[in-house]
Structure prediction request, 181 residues.
Amino acid sequence: MRKMTMTLAKAMWVCVAMWFLGAGICFAAGNIDGTDKFAWSSHTGWLNFSPTHGGVTVVRDGANGYLKGFVWAENVGWIKLGAGDGTGPYANTSSSNWGVNMDAAGNLSGYGWSSHVGWINFHPTHGQVAIAPDTGSFDGFAWGENIGWIHFKNAAPQYNVKAVFGHATPASAKPNWMLLK
Prediction:
């Protein structure tokens, strides 16, 4: 009986450790600027692309790329930007391969998902989100059927979402649209 109790206790500790490791992987920090990290929706309020326990990463994959990670919205909770482990680009053809892709010009397309508000389209009719190749600044509008328009950049009041690309990546490894001027 004592041996079974010890085995059960060890198994529980392993499960707890795995959960913490998994949470750390799921909520790893991204490459969004710590100051320029907010988008706005009049129905949900501020959407934080670089929260304390999460974050979005803009991944460059050759000339194209994709987004992965989690956005935090105080009024609706977590919004995930890619299916599974967030490895894109995403086909966006089924419930198992959805996510937000980026073309060579920095234009975003595809979908994010929130269990509270449903799908969020990054290239809806009459809108699209894009990332400026020279600054990493997001601009444009995404659309969620249950939350309306999400705006990524505004002059007054000033807000913006901005990706920070590391200086460690050599220019030759960056697609042409990512080379800083």
Remarks:
- Residues 31-166 form one domain.
